[in-house]
C-alpha cells in the first residue's frame, strides 16, 4: 500500500531541499541522464556529484532488469496521471555493494504538461542507516510541516470591511520586518510587503475565496526588510463566523529555494550542459514561434546548421577540457552577431543550430552565410590563453522558400550541411530542392545496395597490370561491379561512397574479398600462376581492426599465402589520423602484407608522410597519366614521382593508361608497371582465366 503524502512533482523539489540527509537526483525524463544531485549522494552512494552528472542512472541499479523496471514505473506514473510515485528497489554503491532503498519520484513538466525531468529522493533502508522509511519522515515532506521556513497567520475581515491580523507568527514575520502587534490594527504593513505586481491579484483571490469559502493557494513575490525579493506561497482556509466576519487561517511558505531549484532543473533540461546554450528542445520551441512571426510580418527566417571541421582533433590533441572551452567560445562567437530575437543552440558534439529572424530581403539572407563563416577567420582564444584556429561548414534553409515547419527547416539545413561537408572549396551552402531529390535517391540506392550485398549481386572484376619491360602480366586489381537489368552497371562512384557513409562497406568488402580468395584458390587448383591481387581498403576498413583479423583467417581457410594479396590504401586514409594508421600499417607489414599507396599525388601531405610508412608500391593517379604525353608539366610531375619512389625503393605502377603514346612515355620515364583500358579492361574471373599463365612449378 502506498502511504506517500500527496505531493506534486514541484512540491517534491521543495521537500527535497529539506531532505538534506537523503540523496536527491534530478534526471532527464527521456534520456534518464543525471542532471543534478545533492551532496548526500556522496555519503550514501560513494559518487561525487560531478562524477555522476550526464551519466545514466543505470549505473546505480544492480542489473539491467532493475533499471528497466524503474523505467516502467515512470511510465505507470504517466498512465495513472500521477505526478508522484513511491517504490522500493535495490541499488548499487560505487564500491559494488548493494542495498535496499525506497524512492519518492516526482515529475517536472513544461508549460504544456510534457514531462521534462524527474526528481527522486532516495531513502537508504540498509542496516545501520538512520533512515528506516520515508513514511516516518512524512512531516518533513509535508507542505505544512513545522520545519519549512515560513509563518502562520489569522486574517479577519469584519462585515463593515475592517481588516485585522489577529496573529502572525514564524520566521517570515521577522524576516519581512512585520510587527505582529502593529499588524493587528494596520493590515497595510502586510500588504505593503507584497510586490506591487502581485497585490491586486492577492486582493482579488481574498475577495473570491471570502465569498466561496474555498481554499486560497497562490504564489507571489514580496520584499524582506532589507529589500530582498523572495517567493512566497500563501495557503489559507476561510471560514464564516456567526456575526458575518470571515477568517482566513493560513500559512506563508518561503519557496524561493524551490523556485530556484525549478529554474535550475528547467535550465538543465532546456540548455546544453557544456556551453549553457539552449538545446534542441528549446530551439524548436522558439523556432515554431519565429515561423508564426515571420509569416505574419512577411519577412525571411533563416535556420542554420553549423559543424566544426575535424573538431575531434582538438579533443585528441588538447584534451576534453580544452575541447569544452572551445565549444563555449564557438557558441559565444555565434551569439555575437545575433540580436535578442534570434537564438543559437548546441545540437550535439561539434554541431550548432542558429536562427536569424526579421531578414527583410533576399540579399540579407544571402549575406548571412558569409557573415557566419567570417566569424571564424580569427582564432579562438581559450581560457588558458592558447589560440585555436577552427573552420566551419554551414548549411542554411529559408522560410518560407524551403519549408514551413520547424522540422522541415531543420531537415533542409541539415541536408545543405551534408552537401557542403563534401565540398572542400565551400564553407556554406543553401538548401535546394535538388538536395532532397538526391537524398531520396540515396535512400533508394542504400536499400537496393543492402539487398545486392545480401544476394551476392556485387561481383569482383579484375583489371590486369603489366610489366613495362617485358609486357608480362604482373598483377591484378579488384574492382567492384554491380550489374543491373538490361546489361547495365551501377557506377562504383555512386555506391562505394554510399557504402562507406552507411557502414555497408564492411559486409560489402567481406563479400568481395571472400569471392576473390575463392577465385584465386580455384585458379591454383586448375594449375594457373596467379600474380598478387590488389584490394583497395578504405579508411573505414583500416580502422575496423576486425577486418584484418578476418582477412588472415580467410587466407588460411583458402590455404593461401600472405603474398596472394596486395593491400591498396589511398592517401586520404592516413592524412586525418596518421599515428593510428601508421601503427596499423606497420603491424600489417610485419605480417608480410604487401602495401601499396593508391592515387598518389592527390592528397596534401604525401611527401612528408611517405617515408614514414611501410609501403612497397606506389600508384600514380590517372590525373597525371592522362596528360603525360601532352603536358610537359604533368610529365615532369610523373618523372618526379618515379624518382622519389626509386629513392625510397618503391615499385611504381601507373593507372589509367589509355593510349600507346602514354604507355611509351611511361616506359621512357622508368615506370615499372601499368594498367588501363589501352592494355586491358576490367573483366570477370572467367574471362581473365584465358590470360593467366600456367604454373610451371605444378607441371
Automatic annotation (TrEMBL):
All residue ranges annotated as the EAL domain in the record: 442-696
GGDEF domain ranges (all copies): 299-433
Residue stretches making up the PAC domain: 216-267
InterPro entries: Biofilm_reg_signaling, EAL_dom, EAL_sf, GGDEF_dom, Nucleotide_cyclase, PAC, PAS, PAS-assoc_C
GO terms classed as biological process: regulation of DNA-templated transcription
Pfam families reported for this sequence: EAL (PF00563), GGDEF (PF00990), PAS (PF00989), PAS_3 (PF08447)
PROSITE patterns referenced in this protein's UniProt entry, alphabetically: EAL, GGDEF, PAC, PAS
Protein name (Swiss-Prot/TrEMBL): PAS domain S-box-containing protein/diguanylate cyclase (GGDEF)-like protein
Organism from which the protein derives: Halospina denitrificans
Residue span, PAS domain: 23-61
